[in-house]
Automatic annotation (TrEMBL):
Signal peptide from the UniProt entry: 1-27
Name of the featured protein: Gfo/Idh/MocA family oxidoreductase
GO molecular function: nucleotide binding; oxidoreductase activity
Keyword Protein biosynthesis appears in the UniProt entry: no
Residue intervals of the Gfo/Idh/MocA-like oxidoreductase N-terminal domain: 49-169
Organism, as annotated: Mucilaginibacter psychrotolerans
Pfam family for this entry, one: GFO_IDH_MocA_C3
Length: 465
């Protein structure tokens, strides 16, 4: 860290107000230099990383495209259970791409594959990740890293035992905006944290997971038996369950596992928290009555106890798939002296800062007027003697606004960080422990909702109490 940067952070934590211009300068300049160096880096033959993507749905294609922005990364194989997506992969990435319906063909038989991207339905994340690490593959696993809380410790142990690179795909952990927000938080810019509000609102069918189903869907074109082979309850072929799996508990984790986990990943990253101690969630299936068995509106209240990393605070999470506001997302971290508002998808933030007056105030909405005039005068005279005008005035500061560069993409940086770890053995930005500590409280929200009870969580040992 440069001496100028140390001075910058030191001032930020004391009396110097950071302007939006200086914040943007420090934030964008450093990170842009890092990304430029990555883009310009010459990659030799020994630096090439050969990858395979398992699950070529929405996230499979998006993750693959983000991975291929990193120099020296080559896609050599793809796996999916719908023949049409394998055909599409060849259209996009070349007719010579190796494709299969069995992920084991990639992680066991293909010794030339260095890393796999796991972008399947949630119910397959953990098993494929474990199999891949045992087979010597680096793993980039979509969130949530597990389908059930009971799977987490085994996956962590596998990563520990195999020493393979493993990273969870919650890109906010690599976002330059979140890095800057974390620095601001740690520098004391909002005082002592006490609460966080975070939400995702949507108002459209695609946002509510009513994805387009292909016309050629059929049991002949979909490997339905393999898809549901690890599910406790078996069903006859149902295209909605396959192409819209997020709507079903048997294969997905609902709004909690899909969206709460993004929110908690960012919150844990900024605050340094290992997780909460109490979780309670409520919800309804209020609008999208399309056969799904998970709620489309869900709220959770989560309590974080005091630890060495942070004071006690509470988090409220909300997802609304039928929101009349047209769709929005935010995370607001509130402290005693300000608020960090990470709006949108985390591409920037605003800090609104106010300091409480030293004087308690007198008059207005107060019991003063209920006393005799003589008593009121005596009280006001005494108040004015004890406090100066400065002590009576609330300190308000200009907003600090940071926005990432227009061409910035946190997913690209998340993959760049992952492949740096694959090449150099450096620590990943979101390992199995971090990923599980973010996912487990979200899955506990589902347990709380379906079982109508408070879930107590041991964040240190990562288990339900």
């Amino acid at each position: 860290m440069s001496s100028d940067r140390r001075k910058f952070l030191k001032h930020l934590g004391t009396s110097v107000l950071l302007t939006s211009a200086s914040l943007t300068s420090f934030a964008a300049r450093e990170e842009q230099e890092i990304r430029t160096l990555r883009a310009q880096k010459r990659v030799g033959p020994n630096d090439k990383i050969r990858i395979a993507t398992i699950g070529m749905g929405i996230m499979g294609f998006n993750d693959t495209n983000a991975a291929l922005t990193v120099p020296g990364v080559e896609l050599v194989a793809a796996c999916d259970l719908y023949k049409g997506r394998l055909a599409r992969a060849k259209e996009v990435y070349g007719a010579g791409l190796f494709t299969t319906e069995d992920y084991r063909d990639l992680i066991i038989d293909r010794k030339d594959i260095d890393a796999v991207i796991i972008a399947t339905s949630d119910n397959w994340h953990s098993q494929i990740a474990i199999d891949a690490m045992i087979a010597g593959k680096a793993v980039y696993s979509e969130k949530p890293m597990v389908h059930q809380i009971s799977q987490g410790l085994a996956e962590i142990k596998t990563q520990h035992d195999t020493k393979m690179v493993f990273q969870v795909g919650s890109q906010r952990v690599s976002s330059i905006a979140y890095k800057k927000a974390k620095e601001m938080y740690e520098a004391g810019s909002i005082g002592k944290i006490n609460s966080i509000e975070a939400s995702f609102n949507r108002q459209d069918a695609l946002g509510a997971w009513q994805y387009t189903i292909p016309l050629d869907q059929s049991v002949q074109n979909v490997n339905w038996a393999r898809f549901q082979s690890n599910a406790k309850a078996k069903y006859d072929y149902d295209p909605k369950r396959f192409f819209r799996w997020r709507n079903y508990r048997e294969y997905g984790t609902g709004v909690a596992g899909d969206l709460f986990v993004h929110l908690l990943s960012g919150i844990h990253f900024i605050t340094g928290s290992k997780g909460p101690e109490k979780i309670y969630a409520i919800g309804d299936l209020s609008y999208w009555k399309d056969g799904r068995n998970v709620p489309d509106v869900m709220s959770a209240v989560i309590h974080y106890g005091e630890t060495k990393e942070h004071p006690a605070f509470q988090v409220t999470l909300r997802v609304n798939f039928a929101s009349g506001d047209g769709g929005s997302s935010t995370t607001k971290i509130t402290g005693s002296e300000g608020v960090i508002d990470l709006g949108g998808d985390g591409e920037g933030f605003t800090i609104r800062k106010n300091k409480m007056t030293q004087a308690p105030g007198i008059g207005g909405w107060d019991s003063l007027s209920t006393y005799t005039e003589a008593q009121q005068k005596a009280l006001i005279d005494d108040y004015n003697k004890r406090y100066t005008e400065a002590q009576k005035t609330r300190q308000k500061f200009p907003d600090v606004i940071y926005k990432a560069p227009d061409d910035y993409n946190a997913s690209n940086d998340h993959f760049a960080n992952f492949f740096d770890s694959v090449r150099n053995g450096t620590k990943v930005v979101e390992d199995a422990v971090f990923g599980f500590r973010a996912a487990a409280p979200c899955l506990a929200c589902n347990d709380s909702y379906f079982e109508n009870r408070v879930i107590r969580w041991d964040a240190e040992n990562m288990k339900i109490v």
